Amino acid sequence: MANMLVNIFGTSPVQPLEQHVNIAYQCTKQLIPFFEAAIAGDWEKAKEHRAAVEQYEHEADNLKKEIRKHLPKSLFMPVPREDLLELLLVQDKMANRAKDVSGLVLGRKMRIPDAIAKDFLLFVQRNVDAAKQARKSVRELDELFTTGFRGAEAELVEELVEELDRIETETDQLQADLRAAIFRIESHLDPVTVIFLYRVIELTGEIADMAERVGRRLELLLSH
Amino acid sequence: MDGQLWYIGLAALFGLFMAWGIGANDVANAMATSVGSKALTIRKAILVAAVFEFLGAVLAGGAVTSTIRQGIVDSSLLADTPELLIYGMLASLLAAGCWLLIASRNGWPVSTTHSIVGAIVGFAAVGIGVEAVKWGQVVTIVMSWIVSPLTAGFIAFLIYSSVQKLILRQEDPLERAKRYVPIYMFFAAFTITLVTLLKGLKHVGLELSMTQSYLLAMAIGVLISLVGAAVIRRIEPNRKIDKKQHFYTVERVFAVLMIITACSMAFAHGSNDVANAIGPLAAVISVAKTGIVEGRSAVEVWILLLGGAGIVIGLATYGRHVIATVGERITSLTPSRGFAAELAAASTIVIASGTGIPISTTHTLVGAVLGVGMARGIDAIDLRVVGRIFVSWVVTIPAGALLAIVFFYLFKSILP
């Protein structure tokens, strides 16, 4: 039997959004062992990690659809529905990029040149760190809803987002350095490989870009 | 009067049926938030509800009962045909009871109060004559159905805004909660007690002056906030679940407050809604016993007791399941938000009960919940459902009226 008091409450998007960002982060995190395996040339192992990436990406996608389904236009929320959907979208894109880049590397069995391998792994690590910081920030969403997006909690989230920005800036710098490093050795490499190396770096770097956009979205929520 | 036993027996049966329905469905709304937030176990919630519904019905339920019993139908027109009032009241009880049963089976959000008032107005206007309805009074009641959710919403907005400002948005919400929650406890206990006392407790042999009432309400308020403060002081932060700001523990502090507002809500509900079942019953009994419709005597206490008992039976037999289900599903109404809604609704309802106006407790609570929502306190409110509630609001009155008219003519032809 339905009860009117129960039905008044729409499904809260807060927990699912926090869950989604966690899945997206777990997805990007798989890139670390994936690239370690790829650099070592262990394609069997890389394949396993790529499967995990796909698994997480798929999970994130399903949850994204589920959340959208439970956010009808008739919901009255403390923040605009569009902003939450936008947040969900950029969270999801972190996972998408992880899937794209791992697919590209595995499909072409790309070897990252030894000269840049160490720097490249650091670059991946920092991108994953950005996703992790995005997760940390989004996980404050329930507290933000509790406090009505104001006061001490809002300031705390602002700090978290600032840290996220710092990490993203760092990945930009690492990305520029990597490009320069490839430029220095590209005459020794197969041209097609070089093109795709640039592409891999670009895609990986977009994880931090998306993480930063997660931060932007959170800030937008605070400004309402 | 001929058929006296028949009338009283049927009225008691229908009255109990109605009271059972109220206990089975409505009370869940008052208690479920406390169960959902784990402030109370189901067992304790039923105990609290039983005690305070009963107290509310007996101590503060008289005025609304009088309104339902003799405030809507102009009984002076019925001096020669007292049996018409009996048929009508029996028909109203049965109509409201049936409509509630149909509605809850189909999951329509309807109000017991709207059903019974619609039914009484219906049988009186059609069965007796349009002039038999005290339209002025009816307009007042219908206006109150608009005003009461708005009032509760406004109060809830203010209460929840103060919670945000004083506690949730501060650097140290836990310390703040421990400091301020006893004050809210004081207000909850003070308001409910004061309104009840000011309205008068002569019928239970307690007569207090204005000053005495204020002093007693103050004393009860202080006592409850002291006990509450002692309980709260023992709450330790949970380091495993808590983050930096201890919101999990803050909610546990509010959960203690919610026990008090749940009591208030049960009391308020008893004071207003029990009348829906026993108002018509009281009317039938008084007419059947004396044969005259101009009963000026107050509602007898045993009838209030019967209504209270009916609610408790409904609660114990069926209401516990409803409480469990509703409680599980309204977790978004955390104690800090739930208490604001409950306190606002309970105050509004008790004030209405004091003036004898039958309002819908559930709709008032819905208004209060929306008020918390307006203060950005609720993650998501489904406006479609709010719309449906307004529609049911409009549909219930003619539905109750129609059923009552049918039953009225039925009783008129088959009863002695």
**What is the N-to-C order of secondary-structure elements of chain B (H for helix, E for strand)?**
HHHHHHHHHHHHEH
Separation of the first and last Cα atoms of chain A: 37 Å
Quaternary class:
heterodimer
What's the alpha carbon Rg of chain A, rounded to whole Å?
19 Å
Describe this structure in words.
The complex is a heterodimer of chains A (224) and B (416). With 224 residues, chain A is mainly alpha-helical. Chain A has one domain: Phosphate transport system protein phou homolog 2, domain 2 (Methane Monooxygenase Hydroxylase, Chain G, domain 1). Chain A is built from nine helices and one strand, in the order H-H-H-H-E-H-H-H-H-H. In chain A, helix 2 packs parallel to helix 5 (81-107), helix 3 runs parallel beside helix 5 (81-107) and helix 3 packs antiparallel against helix 6. The longest helix of chain A has 35 residues, at 151-185. Chain A is elongated, with a radius of gyration of 19 Å. Chain B has one domain (4-414). Chain B is mainly α and 416 residues long. Chain B contains 13 helices and one strand; from the N terminus they run ααααααααααααβα. The model of chain B has no long low-confidence stretch (mean pLDDT 87). Chain B is elongated. The N and C termini of chain B lie close together (10 Å). At the A-B interface, helix 1, strand 1, helix 7 and helix 8 of A face helix 1, helix 10, helix 12, strand 1 and helix 13 of B. Strand 1 of chain A pairs antiparallel with strand 1 of chain B, so a sheet runs across the interface.
